[in-house]
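Severity: low
Component: inverse-folding endpoint
Summary: output formatting inconsistent between runs
Steps to reproduce: submit the following structure tokens with default settings.
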């Protein structure tokens, strides 16, 4: 075959086979990338903690307009403690003989108003420190009116006095009158809490 004919067929075959040959990829090269070991001492892998928290705002100080809910919860716990103590001391003052007969009426008609009165006294307290207030109970009197007093322990002065007295109403009989006095008017006014009817017969002594 002439030389020029060989070159012609060689060129023709090259043109016809363009794009049909796909070279084989080196699979091991990809594996080499994936399995490349990590140098644990490479400092570029560590986060700069100083810069990471640089934009975090400091919220440790509350604004003056924000509420300190922890203090609020603590105050609520104190008031709740006083109201529960007040109920206990009221029943102790009445004694088993009286409370055994009128306890349901006390719980429904006296305790809710008494609780409101205690909340009002605490709300009006001029100081933010409620821990100075104490509840001092009546321990021995069988005839006096005192149930308990709320006292400013720093000054040893009464803030409020909660009392109960026996009222004999003509043609009706005996009633228990619950009321309290406050230091605002030097304990002169009676703030009514409520009344509970007893009987026409004389009630037992307190705490009996």
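Observed output (run 2 of 3):
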């Amino acid at each position: 075959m002439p030389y020029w004919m060989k070159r012609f067929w060689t060129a023709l075959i090259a043109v016809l086979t363009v794009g049909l040959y796909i070279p084989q990829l080196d699979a091991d090269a990809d594996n080499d990338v994936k399995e490349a070991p990590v140098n644990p001492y490479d400092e570029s892998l560590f986060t700069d903690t100083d810069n990471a928290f640089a934009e975090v705002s400091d919220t440790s100080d509350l604004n003056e307009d924000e509420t300190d809910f922890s203090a609020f919860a603590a105050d609520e716990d104190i008031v709740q403690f006083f109201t529960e103590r007040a109920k206990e001391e009221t029943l102790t003052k009445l004694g088993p003989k009286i409370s055994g007969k009128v306890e349901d009426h006390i719980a429904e008609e006296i305790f809710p108003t008494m609780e409101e009165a205690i909340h009002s006294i605490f709300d009006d307290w001029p100081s933010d420190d409620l821990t100075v207030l104490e509840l001092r109970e009546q321990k021995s009197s069988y005839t006096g009116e005192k149930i308990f007093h709320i006292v400013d322990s720093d000054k040893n002065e009464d803030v409020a006095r909660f009392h109960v007295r026996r009222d004999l109403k003509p043609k009706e009989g005996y009633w228990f009158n619950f009321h309290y006095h406050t230091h605002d008017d030097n304990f002169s006014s009676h703030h009514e809490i409520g009344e509970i009817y007893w009987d026409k017969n004389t009630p037992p002594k307190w705490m009996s």
